Amino acid sequence: MKKIIRLYEEGGAAGLKPGRRGRRTGDKRSLSEEQELRLQRLICDKRPEQLKMDFALWNRGAIRQLIEQECGISMPIRTVGHYLKRWGFTPQKPIRRAYEQRPEAVKQWLNEQYPDIAKRARTEGGEIHWGDETGLVNTDVRGRGFAPKEKHP
């Protein structure tokens, strides 16, 4: 009881409010603040292929490999997801259309060059298939990659 009275006399009603519980922000993390900033910059400025990695987009597996490559720390994939969320990165699909698409150039190619290609394909191998030589059709394979919120990979 004396402790409560002393707390009230020292800080008023605000002195009676309970303090924050749990670990301090940043306490017991695998990566230091400098390492986190360096990794964030790498993810924003580079693509995995530029860093000689076998990934097309920044997914959790690619970022896990980047952390091991840059910091020498092996980290569970779930923890990588927590770091990405904390950094403000969200899983996103790349935009469907190219930024620098030129519809007039595409139309010109379809009208001028494609008919010759299609004709040559018919004479060499029969009919045209919408797929590769295995007969499989390549549909939406863009996948998902992590990027800062509202910025598409």
Short description:
With 153 residues, this protein is mostly helical.
Overview of the structural elements:
The chain has 153 residues and is mainly alpha-helical. The protein has a domain of 82 residues. It contains six helices and two strands. Strands 1-2 form a two-stranded antiparallel sheet. Helix 3 packs across helix 4. The radius of gyration is 27 Å and the shape is elongated. The model has no long low-confidence stretch (mean pLDDT 83).
Tally of DSSP β-strands: 2
Question: Structural class of the helix and strand makeup?
Answer: mainly alpha
Reading side by side through the largest sheet, how are the strands ordered? 1-2
Backbone CA Rg? 27 Å
In percent terms, what proportion of residues is strand? 5-15%
Q: Runs with pLDDT <50, length 5+?
A: none
Topology as H/E string? HHHHEHHE
Mean pLDDT: 83
How many helices? The count is 6
> How does the overall form come out from the CA principal axes?
elongated
Distance between the termini: 59 Å
What portion of residues is helical?
40-55%
Largest sheet entry: 2 strands, antiparallel
Secondary structure layout plus pairing:
Layout: H1 2-11, H2 33-45, H3 60-71, H4 77-87, E1 89-92, H5 103-112, H6 114-125, E2 145-148
Antiparallel strand pairs: 1-2
